[in-house]
Amino acid sequence: MAMKPGNVSQTAWRRSVGKQFHMRHPETVSSLSRESRYAVIENTGDTCTVCAGASAYGSGGMTAYYAVLEAAGNVASGGALPTEVSLGILLPAESDEEILRQTAEGAEAACRKMNLQAACVRAEVSPSVSDIIVTAEAAGTAEKTACAGLKGMRPGQEILLCGYVALEGTLRIVEEAEEELKKRFVPSFLDGTKGLAEELVTADMIRKACGLKMTENGGVRPCVTAVRQIGSGGILAALWDMAEMSGTGLEADMHRMTLRQETVEICEYFQLNPYQMTSSGSFLLAADHAEEVIEVLEKAGARAGRLGVARAGRAKVITSGEEVRYLDRPAPDELMRWWGTRPVSE
């Protein structure tokens, strides 16, 4: 059976991936699961190493930027501040050196923004690919207590949205289809949209929220107990995976899924659903003391707000005014679907 674009389904992953791998070092490495976007390795002493990977493809020079952004964000989701990243760059046949230079420049821009050290960069030209493909593997260390505090969301906790829905997808479409968009939108609109890259949430902002603790019942507890970067499949897929990972239900308000107007207009032009579009650089958090967490995020420069509540049971409810519906299993990512409709020459 042919698989759909984007992350493979839970069923396919469990049947064709999960059953193939077995734990050989459970005392040092976290368990393997589809929902997890990072691995935790127990170090000697009081620290652990968090590793995570990501990939991105495209024809623009910023392709590597988004691979690094997502990988670093996934490390932060595990409670660590990423410090280094390794890259694999795969270029189509007949690529000239200028494309390689632009791709490396995009990766370095992400490293510079997030204070990451490029530890290893491998580049290869292959006739088997038609676009630039970049894989990024990031790592960082954290105290074991910080990693242990991220055990999933609990019923009654608030779910927060940090960042904007589908912003990454919007920026990547503008880069890939700027000439076409110039026929529909004025230059100032497109220039303003490109500037929204500054609104992408970085790993250090999320790490500050993960480190927030409050005194409760005579003990100190972390305020944030689960973090999920909104990657392939968009915010609806991220909500589904976060609930599945935690074994809970949820109730989220569609009206609080904040979109930039630029995203709305570009998605309308291409007839895309922004709620199913990749949005690395935006995060979901499950938290106690939500007001304090929001304050920390906003002081760090990230937009944050309440989205919903974790519930007991497994029902995943999305409300929109008086309309109530249940969240479906993740659908194919809209950016990937859009990419599949583009002429090969682009």
Protein architecture, described:
By secondary structure, the chain is α+β, with helices and mostly antiparallel strands. It folds into 2 domains: 23-148, PurM-like, N-terminal domain (60s Ribosomal Protein L30, Chain: A), CATH 3.30.1330.10; 158-341, PurM-like C-terminal domain (Phosphoribosyl-aminoimidazole Synthetase, Chain A, domain 2), CATH 3.90.650. 34% of the residues lie in helices and 29% in strands. It contains 12 helices and 14 strands. The strands form 3 sheets. Strands 9-11-6-12-10-13-14 form a 7-stranded mixed β-sheet, with helices on both faces. Helix 2 packs parallel to helix 8 and helix 5 crosses helix 10. The radius of gyration is 20 Å and the shape is globular. The relative contact order is 0.16. The mean pLDDT is 93.
Topology, pairings included?
Elements: H1 10-18, E1 39-42, E2 47-58, H2 63-77, E3 81-92, H3 97-114, E4 117-126, E5 132-143, H4 144-148, E6 158-162, H5 167-176, H6 178-181, H7 187-194, H8 203-210, E7 213-216, E8 219-222, E9 224-230, H9 234-246, E10 249-253, H10 261-270, E11 279-287, H11 290-299, E12 304-311, E13 316-320, E14 323-326, H12 334-341
Parallel strand pairs: 3-4, 10-13
Antiparallel strand pairs: 1-2, 2-5, 3-5, 6-11, 6-12, 7-8, 9-11, 10-12, 13-14
Helix pairs in contact: 2-3, 2-8, 5-10, 8-11
